[in-house]
Amino acid sequence: MQALTSLISTSVSDHPARVTLSGTYYDASSSRAFDVLMHLEADGTLRVESVEINRVAQMSECPLSDPLGRMARHFTLPDGARLEITDVDSLANWEREQGRSSGMHLVHLMETRWRWVSAAVIFLLGFMAAGYIWGLPIAAKHVALRLPPKIATITTDQARYLFTKMLDLKDSKVPAKRRQKIGAKFLEMAAAMDPGSKHNYRLEFFDAKFPNAFALPDGLVCITDELIEKAKNNKEVYGVLAHEIVHVREQHGLRSVLQNSAVFLIWTLMTGDISTVAGMGSALPAMLAQSGYSRGFEQEADFGAADYMIKVGWGTKPLSDILQRIDPEHHLGDAEEALSSHPLTGNRVKTLEDYERSKRK
Ligand SMILES: [Zn+2]
Q1: Which has the higher per-residue pLDDT, 154 or 240?
Q2: Ligand 1 centre from 256 Cα, in Å?
């Protein structure tokens, strides 16, 4: 026995790729079992040795069973004899060293380490869910508020063009004098609500087929004649504009787009190159049109508008009133629906009232 051991160790050092394993040999004809040593040689030869057995075969002619948990694996020799290996770890190491792969390693790993793997999978899913719910909006805000202004400008120009076509926007027919008055108030509100802003706040009036207003990333707010016609007074218009100013200040548009394209966002964070967003320039306006705002963003815009309106002594009623007035006929087409920032009016009015009451306490 001593002689055999030293023979093996010598052979191993001469041929680093060689491995010797113990196993059980089942004779094809008699099914008798023999304890054997097997040598897996670097040249692809399989040698089986014991006192009774001495066989040589080519491994390419001896299929090896796939790993399945910690179950023993076996080579099948050309004449049907089987060679069983219980030391599956050493065999797997040898396969790795040989660059052999049974293609079952993941399954093997999961079967042998299933407790560990299922814990890891649960952790990963939890981590991803948390990342999606909390991490993604935070990351989107971080990126959106730090984008170079040029990107907001390009996006706005293209989105404005796109919306003009999509929504068939025409030149406003509201008298110039009234437009001037509303426009001046809009700038005054923007300066008060977003002091020291980097955004280029400006208001445009359009003739459309529906009452609406929307904000674009660089500070352009658009309002339709139909919304102004629905308003009983300018304060109601200002309430809507205050809401849109918050959308710009908080960059809800770009944040929606970024949140809705998480893969792209993760790529930006990984590469640390925020300027690559510029490459998305052509896609952003279309995405902006499709993404709409989340209910959370709408509420933030309502509350931001309410803060201003309460502060200047108007209260939130003008905004609530116009929301309710435009709601019943607010059944818009797809493109318009996407742009509409006024869903679920009933809830919003109630929430606005509750908010104002809490602020006045
Ligand atoms: Zn809105």
Answers
A1: 240
A2: 12
